[in-house]
């Protein structure tokens, strides 16, 4: 039996065996080759030439897999060793942006939001005040004019102003003197008569009792002014409380006297 073996150089990974033995012998040699190749390199592949076997001379080729070192070179393009691993940079993700343009953008958004909220609030308040404002007819009724020339001396008229009664009394000189001679210390709500009138002959007061809101009767009571029959309060000709449960003088409204025209409100 002749065995020709050619072992390729280390760069070649193919081991070729040529033999003239019979097919059985060749199989035996293949088995031996497989065992020999597998012991050092792992798996092995073989091919048999059909022509060679038929002619009595068979060629068996063993092709071995690359060595472990070569596999490593095939799997990676980098040489093994420290410092060869490339680590990606995360600098863009870890950058501190607190002091750059992001802060300006945050301030801009806050300012824009505040401006919009302010505009919305202003619009709402304006609409609310517009709806709540008094209408023209209500404003016209806010002031009441009275012709003083039509009120005789010593008489009192009652007019309606903003839904409330208002007494306008044309006082005599005797009544004026009587109002100014009162001892203020004896009054429940001390007040000078001169502080309650613009012109002494004209006394203007809201005709509502300061106790519980009844309307006093005119030119009556113990002091010649007004009397509240609800609980017995007496007011003098200046509208000041003199006797009874009422705690305060009757209210003097805002008014203006121009000639014979009295404008209340
Ligand atoms: S309401 Fe006038 S005295 Fe009571």
From TrEMBL:
<dbReference type="InterPro" id="IPR017941">
    <property type="entry name" value="Rieske_2Fe-2S"/>
</dbReference>
<keyword id="KW-0411">Iron-sulfur</keyword>
<keyword id="KW-0249">Electron transport</keyword>
<feature type="domain" description="Rieske">
    <location>
        <begin position="196"/>
        <end position="264"/>
    </location>
</feature>
<dbReference type="InterPro" id="IPR037008">
    <property type="entry name" value="bc1_Rieske_TM_sf"/>
</dbReference>
<dbReference type="GO" id="GO:0008121">
    <property type="term" value="F:quinol-cytochrome-c reductase activity"/>
</dbReference>
<protein>
    <recommendedName>
        <fullName>Cytochrome b-c1 complex subunit Rieske, mitochondrial</fullName>
        <ecNumber>7.1.1.8</ecNumber>
    </recommendedName>
</protein>
<dbReference type="GO" id="GO:0051537">
    <property type="term" value="F:2 iron, 2 sulfur cluster binding"/>
</dbReference>
<keyword id="KW-0496">Mitochondrion</keyword>
<comment type="similarity">
    <text>Belongs to the Rieske iron-sulfur protein family.</text>
</comment>
<keyword id="KW-0472">Membrane</keyword>
<dbReference type="InterPro" id="IPR004192">
    <property type="entry name" value="Rieske_TM"/>
</dbReference>
<keyword id="KW-0001">2Fe-2S</keyword>
<dbReference type="Pfam" id="PF02921">
    <property type="entry name" value="UCR_TM"/>
</dbReference>
<keyword id="KW-0679">Respiratory chain</keyword>
<dbReference type="InterPro" id="IPR014349">
    <property type="entry name" value="Rieske_Fe-S_prot"/>
</dbReference>
<keyword id="KW-0479">Metal-binding</keyword>
<keyword id="KW-0408">Iron</keyword>
<keyword id="KW-0813">Transport</keyword>
<keyword id="KW-0812">Transmembrane</keyword>
<dbReference type="GO" id="GO:0046872">
    <property type="term" value="F:metal ion binding"/>
</dbReference>
<dbReference type="InterPro" id="IPR036922">
    <property type="entry name" value="Rieske_2Fe-2S_sf"/>
</dbReference>
<keyword id="KW-1133">Transmembrane helix</keyword>
<dbReference type="InterPro" id="IPR006317">
    <property type="entry name" value="Ubiquinol_cyt_c_Rdtase_Fe-S-su"/>
</dbReference>
<dbReference type="GO" id="GO:0005743">
    <property type="term" value="C:mitochondrial inner membrane"/>
</dbReference>
<dbReference type="InterPro" id="IPR005805">
    <property type="entry name" value="Rieske_Fe-S_prot_C"/>
</dbReference>
<dbReference type="Pfam" id="PF00355">
    <property type="entry name" value="Rieske"/>
</dbReference>
<keyword id="KW-1015">Disulfide bond</keyword>
